[in-house]
């Protein structure tokens, strides 16, 4: 069974600062994918970034980077230079054979 | 085009009504998914279609009936729903049903209210 843990129910950050959203995972699969999604109040789940379990380099996509520490089973999302539009719910998720397992999410609020 | 579309955006239905939710993707993806999401909770998987065949049913009540008419379309037929079924229903698709490297693309969702 797969499990994703996000321990921060809410995070606050000021505009233009960096923020780290925590995610730890547990799985017995040798091959897996880790994903971060953003869900604004409108409801749509927006794919942000992906890290494969065999990737040695941390993934980056624009202002998003994934701090992947396999031995510690963590896959933290780093958002640099936060913007007001980054205020949303953020979900960490793991993909195994067929399904996607989500964490409980972290609500990020960016203040001016 | 990395778009998954869903109709309608909002739906209000009575407990005796029959309605359908529709989902469409034109990315050539071979897997499609239905999720249910309650407020402030993560999405919960309901159904998975792999190559147009139902591969996973997460013990969903029979008042929800999925259908995959072709590789681009996914429907969710609703009948005799309960107020607790009110939620955001998300459709998603991915390129390969079993490869963990492929992300799922989500549609904007249908906000369902059962009265």
Strand content of chain A: over 45%
Low-confidence stretches of chain B: none
Major beta-sheet overview of chain B: 7 strands, mixed
User: What is the helix content of chain B?
Assistant: under 10%
The secondary-structure element order of chain B is: EEEEEEEEEEE
Q: Based on CA inertia axes, which overall geometry of chain B fits?
A: globular
* Pair with the biggest interface: A-B, 27 and 28 residues
Question: What ranges of chain A have pLDDT less than 50 throughout 5 or more consecutive residues?
Answer: none
Record the SSE blueprint.
The complex is a heterodimer of chains A (112) and B (115).
Chain A: E1 3-5, E2 10-14, E3 19-21, E4 24-26, E5 33-39, E6 46-52, E7 60-61, E8 64-69, E9 74-79, E10 88-95, E11 100-102, E12 106-111
Parallel strand pairs in A: 2-12
Antiparallel strand pairs in A: 1-4, 3-9, 5-6, 5-10, 7-8, 8-9, 10-11, 10-12
Chain B: E1 4-7, E2 10-13, E3 18-25, E4 31-37, E5 44-50, E6 53-57, E7 64-70, E8 73-79, E9 87-94, E10 105-106, E11 110-114
Parallel strand pairs in B: 2-11
Antiparallel strand pairs in B: 1-3, 3-8, 4-5, 4-9, 5-6, 7-8, 9-10, 9-11
Characterise this structure.
The complex is a heterodimer of chains A (112) and B (115). Chain A has no helices and 12 strands. With 112 residues, chain A is an all-beta fold. In chain A, strands 2, 5, 6, 10, 11 and 12 form a 6-stranded mixed β-sheet that branches. Chain B has 115 residues and is mostly beta strands. The radius of gyration of chain B is 13 Å and the shape is globular. The N and C termini of chain B lie far apart (36 Å). In chain B, 37% of the residues are buried. The A-B interface holds A 29, 31-33, 35, 37, 42-47, 50, 52-53, 89, 91, 95-100, 102-105 and B 31, 33, 37, 40-43, 45, 48, 50, 55-56, 88, 90, 92, 97-98, 100-109, 111.
């Amino acid at each position: 069974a797969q499990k994703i843990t996000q321990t921060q129910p809410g995070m606050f950050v000021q505009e233009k600062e960096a923020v780290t959203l925590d995610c730890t995972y547990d799985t017995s699969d040798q091959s897996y994918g880790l994903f971060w999604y953003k869900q604004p109040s409108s409801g749509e789940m927006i794919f942000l970034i992906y890290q494969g379990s065999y990737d040695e380099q941390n993934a980056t996509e624009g202002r998003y980077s994934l701090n992947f520490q396999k031995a510690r089973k963590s896959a933290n999302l780093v958002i640099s230079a936060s913007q007001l539009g980054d205020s949303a719910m953020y979900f960490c998720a793991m993909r195994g054979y067929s399904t996607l397992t989500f964490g409980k999410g972290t609500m990020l609020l960016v203040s001016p | 085009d990395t778009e998954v579309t869903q109709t309608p955006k909002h739906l209000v239905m009575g407990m005796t009504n029959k309605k359908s939710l529709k989902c469409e993707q034109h990315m050539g993806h071979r897997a499609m998914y239905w999720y249910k999401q309650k407020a402030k909770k993560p999405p919960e998987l309901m159904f998975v279609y792999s190559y147009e065949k139902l591969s996973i049913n997460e013990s969903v009540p029979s008042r929800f009936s999925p259908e995959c008419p072709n590789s681009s379309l996914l429907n969710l037929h609703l009948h005799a729903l309960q107020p607790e079924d009110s939620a955001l229903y998300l459709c998603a698709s991915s390129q390969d049903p079993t490869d963990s490297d492929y992300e799922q693309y989500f549609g904007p969702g249908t906000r369902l209210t059962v009265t």
